[in-house]
């Protein structure tokens, strides 16, 4: 309690931890022969796009999202590694669980990033800086992987601090110094401020966080509403955003897959659509959600074709979703080449309200219930419609927004 | 065309028909109303190609016959803003509709009256009359349960079923259903079902008054017409099959609860404040002599309330959307209500203890 009166007590203390080149670091940890070498992680052996790459590869200018072909021109020795999403999910879960030792107020921001609110732990663990060290130790103990840590009085500044030094960065910005520290930083260095807002601010002569902080808040509020007020506070080192442990309710829930080149046979598309429908249906059911509207899309050369298709009542049966896909193929697809499928449940809601005239097939519901139970125990698609024997061999991808619990816990 | 009348005589028909005119139109003429002056009366017509409303007004001042279509909203706004009892002269001059009142002059654009869409002549298959107040009550007590923009298009309206000596109205959005069964003399020997679209129901309700007088109902294969005094409303019918509403009425022999309506209604209003804003779910535990209401929301706020009920059966717990229960309780005008339950997965039926032909069925939410 003595600490509360000392000048070391921060009114708010937030830690941001960011795993360095997470997937690549895991590969280097598990396969010592890869250490010190430029490696690029792709989606399976066939993946052509780099999901992430090691710092050795980054030195050549290789970055996430780059085509492997292009990376090879920059660095012919780059080593391709297929991603192991289940391993990453497992390690991420272990890291996030270990961070709860520091503070239970943890927001898993993505598969390799988290915020901790340690304000109320100061009298227990000591200064925020000390707790930042604890975070590094916890990550080290749980995974032996490198991470960067930023400690400050708000989420935005903490994330900014963690991004300053990579790998193995450790930066502390006390809240009373935050505004001065951000003063000369470009406003686009803050998380969530991209070219659009940056361009608007630049037109008002505001390039740095200090410039923005000096603008009247009403200028930002008039143009961007609450988001504008939020950015103004971020630039002053006073980001009000709370560390929230609960994931927000899903706005949409979907799965997509890239098709093999030249796939434009109806039968192939049907298999892909059934595959995605089964995934979306199973995931909706797992979280007891249902949706009425679905986006069913195919990506063609000129962009997405397809659109929103509706069920008579909110549902989560794969069969019903698949029927919408078939309708979409009949109505919209004109046999043109396509290279991606997408099935997304829009605005899913708790599947609670029962219907008077429910035409949902009780038998089919029972079948899907059994299928869910079997697949939960023996793995995805251990039991599935026969057509899925021909499904894509492309492995599942772990989404950046993956979380250890809730509806985002999906690969 | 030229007519002279007072502002109030012109305003009433304009107000009645203006509901039919949609604010946004694809056909420009549908934003207009048709004003037709004959010997000693004037008719005002509005249509959206689904619902047509015609009001006839007798004229006592000499007038020149003729027809014109005038912008509905603008004409209504001008009339509304004129002082009470002001004398109005409406005429057509050089394809413009000119309204003069006091020292004001308003020239409105017209469109050719010949282009105004007219409904074909109806060949009624059934024609009968019902008291105006009865039909109005019947609509009021069921209309709230109609679906809005449901993909099951036949739910976006009201079922009117004619059975020997009876007229039954049913509305449902799939989650709850309202049914009202009253006596009616009509010539239909066989059961007849028509679905009146949502807009037709709402406009008809506006036209009907709580007073004496009869409504003449004419039904054809694809239209229904209602003549109420000087007002004629014609609506297309929804071509579809309404679900079998008898099938979803609960068995009613299992768990019977009686409760005072107003205390139950108020408790639901209070507790639902802290229910999930979107799903409005309220958990109800029925125990002998007592009903326990419980709600909570994602912000971890919660409400609980106990009220006395008349129930002697086994305890049962059911979840409902509070709004559906409140809609039903608001439509019932009796002091006591009776609730029939089967189990927590089956529909519940609510009605007044004195039989008045109205029943409300609500599907539960999963607990």
How would you sum up this structure, described in words?
The complex is a heterodimer of chains A (411) and B (367). Chain A is α+β, with helices and mostly antiparallel strands and 411 residues long. Chain A has 16 helices and 13 strands. In chain A, the strands form three sheets. A five-stranded mixed beta sheet of chain A has the order 5-6-1-7-8. In chain A, helix 5 runs antiparallel to helix 7. Chain A is globular, with a radius of gyration of 24 Å. The mean pLDDT of chain A is 88. Chain B is of the alpha+beta class and 367 residues long. Chain B folds into three domains: 2-115, DNA Polymerase III, subunit A, domain 2 (DNA Polymerase III, Chain A, domain 2, Roll), CATH 3.10.150.10; 126-241, DNA Polymerase III, Chain A, domain 2; 249-362, DNA Polymerase III, Chain A, domain 2. Helix content of chain B is 17%, strand content 41%. Chain B has helices at 7-18, 72-81, 132-140, 198-207, 261-272, 322-331; strands at 2-6, 32-37, 41-47, 51-58, 66-71, 87-93, 96-101, 104-109, 126-131, 157-163, 166-172, 176-183, 192-197, 214-219, 223-228, 231-236, 255-260, 281-287, 290-296, 302-308, 316-321, 336-341, 348-352, 358-362. An eight-stranded antiparallel beta sheet of chain B has the order 5-2-3-4-16-15-14-9. In chain B, strands 13-10-11-12-24-23-22-17 form an eight-stranded antiparallel beta sheet. In chain B, strands 1-6-7-8 form a four-stranded antiparallel beta sheet. Classes of the chains: A alpha+beta (411), B alpha+beta (367). Chains A and B meet through strand 11 and strand 13 of A and loops of B.
């Amino acid at each position: 309690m003595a600490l509360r009166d000392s000048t070391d007590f921060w009114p708010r203390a937030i830690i941001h931890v960011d795993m360095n080149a997470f997937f690549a670091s895991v590969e280097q940890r598990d396969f010592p022969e890869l250490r010190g070498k430029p490696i690029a992680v792709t989606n399976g052996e066939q993946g052509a796009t780099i999901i992430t790459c090691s710092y050795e590869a980054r030195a050549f200018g290789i970055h996430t999202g780059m085509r492997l072909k292009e990376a090879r021109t920059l660095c012919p020795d780059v080593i391709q590694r297929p991603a192991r999403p289940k391993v990453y999910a497992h390690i991420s879960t272990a890291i996030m669980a270990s961070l709860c030792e520091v503070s239970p107020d943890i927001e898993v921001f993505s598969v390799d990033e988290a915020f901790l609110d340690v304000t109320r732990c100061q009298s227990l663990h000591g200064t925020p800086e000390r707790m930042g060290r604890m975070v590094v130790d916890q990550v080290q103990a749980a995974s032996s992987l490198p991470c960067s840590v930023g400690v400050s009085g708000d989420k935005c500044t903490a994330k900014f601090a963690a991004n300053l030094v990579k790998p193995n960065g450790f930066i502390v910005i006390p809240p009373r110094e935050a505004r001065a520290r951000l003063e000369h930083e470009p406003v686009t260095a803050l998380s969530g401020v991209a070219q659009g807002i940056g361009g608007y601010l630049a037109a008002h002569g505001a390039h740095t966080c200090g410039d923005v902080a000096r603008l009247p808040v009403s200028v930002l509020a008039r143009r961007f509403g609450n988001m504008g007020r939020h950015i103004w506070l971020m630039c002053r080192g006073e980001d009000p955003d709370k560390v929230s442990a609960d994931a927000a309710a899903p706005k949409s829930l979907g799965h997509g897959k890239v098709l093999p080149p030249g796939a434009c046979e109806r039968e192939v598309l049907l298999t892909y659509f059934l595959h995605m429908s089964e995934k979306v249906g199973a995931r909706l059911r797992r979280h007891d959600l249902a949706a009425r509207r679905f986006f069913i899309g195919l990506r063609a050369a000129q962009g997405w074709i397809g659109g929103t298709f509706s069920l008579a009542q909110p549902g989560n049966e794969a069969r019903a979703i698949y029927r919408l896909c078939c309708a979409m193929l009949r109505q919209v697809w004109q046999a043109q080449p396509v290279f991606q499928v997408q099935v997304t449940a829009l605005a899913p809601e708790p599947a609670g309200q029962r219907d008077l005239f429910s035409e949902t097939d009780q038998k089919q519901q029972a079948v899907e219930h059994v299928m869910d139970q079997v697949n939960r125990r023996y793995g995805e698609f251990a039991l599935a419609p026969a057509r899925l024997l021909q499904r894509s061999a492309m492995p599942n991808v772990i989404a950046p927004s993956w979380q250890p619990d809730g509806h985002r816990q999906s690969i | 065309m030229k007519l002279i009348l007072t502002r109030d005589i012109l305003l009433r028909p304009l107000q009645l028909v203006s509901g039919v005119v949609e604010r946004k139109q694809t056909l420009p003429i549908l934003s207009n109303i048709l004003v037709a002056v004959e010997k000693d009366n004037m008719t005002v017509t509005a249509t959206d190609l689904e619902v047509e409303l015609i009001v006839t007004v007798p004229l006592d001042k000499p007038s020149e016959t003729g027809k014109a279509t005038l912008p509905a909203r603008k004409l209504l706004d001008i009339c509304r803003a004129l002082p009470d009892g002001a004398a109005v002269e409406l005429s057509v001059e050089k394809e413009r509709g000119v309204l003069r009142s006091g020292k004001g002059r308003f020239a409105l654009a017209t469109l050719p009256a010949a282009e105004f869409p007219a409904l074909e002549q109806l060949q009624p298959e059934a024609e009968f009359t019902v008291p105006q107040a009865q039909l109005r009550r019947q609509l009021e007590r069921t209309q709230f349960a109609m679906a809005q923009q449901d993909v099951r298009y036949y739910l976006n309206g009201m079922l009117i079923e004619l059975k020997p000596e009876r007229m039954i109205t049913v509305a449902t959005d799939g989650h709850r259903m309202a049914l009202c069964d009253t006596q009616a003399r009509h010539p239909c020997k066989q059961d007849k079902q028509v679905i009146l679209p949502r807009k037709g129901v709402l406009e008809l309700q506006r036209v009907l008054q709580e007073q004496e007088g009869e409504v003449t109902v004419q039904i054809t294969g694809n239209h229904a017409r209602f003549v109420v005094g000087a007002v004629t409303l014609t609506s297309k019918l929804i071509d579809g099959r309404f679900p079998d509403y008898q099938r979803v009425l609960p068995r009613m022999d299992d768990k019977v609860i009686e409760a005072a309506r107003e205390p139950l209604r108020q408790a639901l209003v209070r507790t639902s404040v802290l229910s999930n804003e979107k799903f409005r779910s309220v958990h109800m535990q029925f125990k002998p002599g007592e009903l326990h209401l419980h709600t909570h929301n994602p912000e971890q706020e919660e409400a609980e309330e106990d009220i006395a009920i008349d129930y002697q059966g086994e305890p049962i717990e059911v979840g409902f959307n509070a709004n559906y229960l409140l809609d039903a309780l608001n439509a019932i005008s009796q002091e006591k209500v009776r609730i029939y339950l089967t189990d927590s997965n089956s529909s519940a039926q609510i009605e007044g203890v004195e039989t008045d032909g109205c029943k409300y069925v609500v599907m539960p939410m999963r607990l």
